[in-house]
Amino acid sequence: MYPHRTLGANLMAEFLLEAKNVSVTFGSGSTKVEAVKNCSLTLRSGEPIGIVGESGSGKSTLARVLAGLQAPTEGEIFFNGEPVYKGSKSYTGEARRQVQMVFQDPYGSLNPQLTGLNAVAEAVRIHDKTNKDESENRALELLRRMGIAELDAIKKPRQLSGGQRQRVSVARALSANPTVLLADEPTSAIDQSAQAQLLNLFRGLLDDGLSIVLVSHDLGVIRYLTQRVYVMKDGVFVESGITEEIFNDPLEDYTKLLLASIPGDLGVAARRKLNKN
Amino acid sequence: MSTGMESKTKKKFIKEGTFGIYTGFFMLGSLVLAGAIIPRISKYGPDELASMPLAPPSRANFFGTDVLGRDVFVRVFDAVFIDLGTAIIGVAIPLVVGTIIGTLLGISQNKRVNSVVGSLIDGINAFPFLVFVIALIAFIGPGVGSIVLAISLVNWARYARIARTRAVVVNKQGYVEAARTLGFSKKRILFKHIIPNVSSETRAYALSDFIIVIIAIAALSFLGLGIKPPQAEWGGMIRDGKDLLTVGFWWPTVFPGIALCWAGIAVAFISEGLTRRMREVGTR
Amino acid sequence: MSTPNKPLIQIKDVVIGIPHKRRPTLIIVDKANFDINYGEMVGIVGESGSGKTMICRTMIGTLERRGGKILSGEVIFEGQNLATASDATWKNLRGKSIGYVPQSALAGPNPVLTIEAQLTEALRNTGDTKNIKARSKELLDLVKIRRVDTVMKQYPYQLSGGMRQRVMIACALATSPKLLIADEPTTGLDVTVQSQIMDLLKEIRSTMGTAIVLISHDLALIDEVCDRVVVMHAGATVEVGSVKELEKPRHPYTIALNSSRIDIAKPGSELVTIKGNAPSVGEWNLGCRFAERCSIVQSDCKVGVHPELIGASGTHQSACIHTELLERI
C-alpha cells in the first residue's frame, strides 16, 4: 500500500467522483499492455485534485476512464455514489453531461470546419435545447468569460493561437454545465503566457464551484491549482496526499524526481533540498 | 523600414490560385454554354446529312463533315452534355458511396467487418481502373447506364480507401472525442463532425478523378463499349475518324479530341487553383 | 582554450521579411539585436510569433529555403557577415561550426536510418573518416546514452522522445561546433526529460566550451540554465541582459512575463497575465508593439518606428523609452 495522507476533516462528505480498483488493459497475449493497474481515487466537490506522472504512466488513460470515454477492464467509477459504467463502454445519462474533459492537443481539439462560436453554440443547443439565436448568445457569453472576444469567436481554429483554442475548448466543455472538468495536460502545448491565462481561468472556474481533475507531468502546474495529488508511475499510484505536503515532504523517490524536474525556481529549491539529505 | 502592412494602405490582394480557378471555370462554362446553345441554333442536326461526306472545314461547316456527311461542329457540341454529364455522375456516385463506406469502415471497431470489406476494397483497387471497367462492361453490355454502373462499381473503392485512412485519423481527434463527452448523438458526430472532415480529402480527389473518368468514358466509346451511336460522343467520333487521319482527313478526329482536352484542362486548372489556395490558407 | 574578446556571433539590426510575388514583403523581424559570446549559454525567449524561430533560421542559414530574406542588418559570425553569404559559405559552416538541434515534436532523426547510420552521416561532415564507429559510440556516451551498442542498431521509432533528442544533440556535436542552436529542444517532452537534457546542455557547455543558444517560450527554464537572456516581442528585441540583471527587468514585457511564471506564483492566487495578444505579423502598429498591452504606455510610445535597444552591447539593454515609469508596474 503506498503512502496516503488524507484530509483531516470532511471524511463524511460524499465523493463526487470515485474510482475503485480501476484497471485498463489493452490488447491480449503477447501484446498485452496494462496501462492502469488497480488504481483508486476520490474527488470531493470543490476540492481540485491532480494526477501527475510522465508519459507512459497511464495518467491519460485513467483520465479518459474518468471522463467516460474508456471503459475500465476491471473496477468501476462512481459518480455521486452511483456506478456509471455498469458494463457499458461509455457514460450515459446525467454522468455524461456532468463530467466533461479538455484535451491536450489544442490543434486537434476543435473541428477545423467550425468557427469557435459554432462549435460552442452547437454544444449549447444540444444541452439547453434552445434555438439558434439563444444558443449563439449563450455561446458568446461563455466565450467572453473565457477571454475570447466576439471578433475571435467568429474565426476558424486555424486563425487562433494555441492558447485561444484551448480556451474555446473549455467554453465548449462548459456549455454542458458540468460539475466535473477533467483537463489532460491542458498547458503542455502552449506558451508560458498562454499557460498563465489558462490556469487563471481554471482557478476562476474553481471559485465558481467547478471540480477539476488536472492531469499533468509538471508538478509546478499541479501545485498551483490542486489540493490533493496522486503520483502515477507505470500504471500505479506510488504516492498521494495533500499537494502542499507532498511538495514539502515527499516520501517516494519518484516524487522527489518529479519535484526536482520542475522548471525554474521550484525545481532548483527542490533539488537543493534533495542534495542536502 | 515599413512595419508590416499598415492597414490604411492595404489594397485588395489577389488570392493565390484565383487565376487557375477562374480560368478553369471559364473554360468549362463556355463549353457547357456552347453545348447548350449550338445544337439548338445550328442549321444542321447532329444526325443529319449536312453536306458532302468528309468536306473540309468551311464557312458552311466550321469543323467540316464526317464520313457520313454529318456536321462535325454541331456533333462536337452535342456531345458535351452526355460526355460531361456521364462523367459527373460517374464521379458523384463513387464519391458518395465510397466516402460513406470508407468512413464507416474507418470508425468501426468490428474486426471481422473491417477485414472483409477492407480486403474487398484493396482487391478492387489492385486492378487497373480501365481494365476492370472494360471487363465489367463486357459482362453487362454496352450503353450509358452500363458505363455509369461499371465505373461506379470500380471507382467507389478508390474513394473508400482514402476515406478509411482519413476517418481513422479524424476519429482520434480531440474534437470527435469532445463531441462524445458532450453527449452528441452518434448520428450527429458522424454526419456533422467526421464525414465533413473526411470528405474534404475525398472531394479533393474527386476533382482529379473527374479528368480520369471523362477520358475513360471517351476511351470506352472509342472501343465501342460505351455510348451507342448515333448519339454524338467524343470517343466515338474519334474512333470513327481514326482511320482517316493517315489519309489526310484530320477534322473528324481532331476537333472532338480538342474538346476532350479542353474539358480535361479546364478541370485541371480548377483543381490546381484550389490546391494553391488551400496551401496558402494552410501556411498562415 | 582562451576565449577571444570579440563575440562569436553578432546579430546587428537585422530585419527579416517574407517576400511574396504579388504582395508587399511581409516583415517578420524588425529589429533583432544581440551578441553571443564564445562558450556562453544564451536564451532567446518570446511567445509564438515573436520571431525567435526566424532568428534561429538566420543563424543556421535556412532562412531562404523557408521563404525568408534578410532585408537589412548584419549577421557576423567570427568576423564574416553571413547575411550576404553564399550557399557554399553556408555549407562550410552549417553542421560544422554551427550545429542545430530542432524542436523534438517537429523533427528528429531520419526514421529510416539506424542511429549508427545517422551518426556516421554526421561524422562524415568532419572530413575525417577514420574510426567512425568508435567516435559514434563516444558521441552517444557524451549525451549520456547507456547501452550504446544496443542503441546504435536501433531505429528512431524504438527510442523515447528524450532519447531521440539526445541523438539529435549527438549528431549536432559530431563536428565540435563552436555554436549550438537548440530550438525549443524540450517543448513537448516531460519535465523530467527536459531537466535531464538541460543538465546535458550545461555539461556540454562546460566541457566542450560550445556556445549554446536556447530558444524557448519558457522564461523559468531559461532563467534556470542560461547565462544571458534575449527577450523578443513581435519581431523586435526588447531586452538583453544577464540572468542576474533580468531579476530586475527593465522592459514592461519582461516584467509581465516574469510575473506570469507559475514557479514563483503563490498557489491559488491570481496569476498575473499579459492582457491581449501580441500583434500578428502584418498587423503591426506604429511605434512600440507592446504598447497595446503595456500598463505604463504613454502617448509617444505609439508613434514612429519601434524603439531601439538602449545601452551598449554587453550591458543590460532595454527597448523601453520610459524606463523611469517601470516602478509603477
Question: Key features?
Answer:
heterotrimer, A: 277 residues, alpha/beta, 6-stranded mixed β-sheet, 4-stranded antiparallel β-sheet, 11 helices, 39% helix, globular, disordered N terminus, C: 329 residues, 7-stranded mixed β-sheet, 11 strands, 20% strand
- State which percent range the strand residues of chain B make up: under 5%
Beta-strand percent range of chain A: 15-25%
**Oligomerization:** heterotrimer
Structural class of chain A: alpha/beta
Number of helices of chain B: 9
Physical arrangement of strands within the biggest beta sheet of chain A: 6-7-8-3-9-10
The helix/strand series of chain A, from N terminus to C terminus, equals EEEHEEHEHHHHEHEHEEHHH
> What is the residue-averaged pLDDT of chain A?
88
Any low-confidence stretches of chain B, pLDDT <50, length ≥5? Answer: 1-11
Give the helix level of chain B as a range of percent.
over 70%
What ranges of chain A have pLDDT less than 50 throughout 5 or more consecutive residues?
Answer: 3-13
Question: How far apart, in Å, are the first and last alpha carbons of chain A?
Answer: 25 Å
Number of separate strands of chain A:
10
Bulk shape of chain A: globular
Quick check: average pLDDT of chain B?
86
**Largest chain-chain contact?**
A-C, 38 and 34 residues
Q: How many H/I helices of chain A?
A: 11
Cα radius of gyration of chain B in angstroms:
24 Å
N-to-C series of helices and strands of chain B: HHHHHHHHH
Largest sheet of chain B, if any?
none
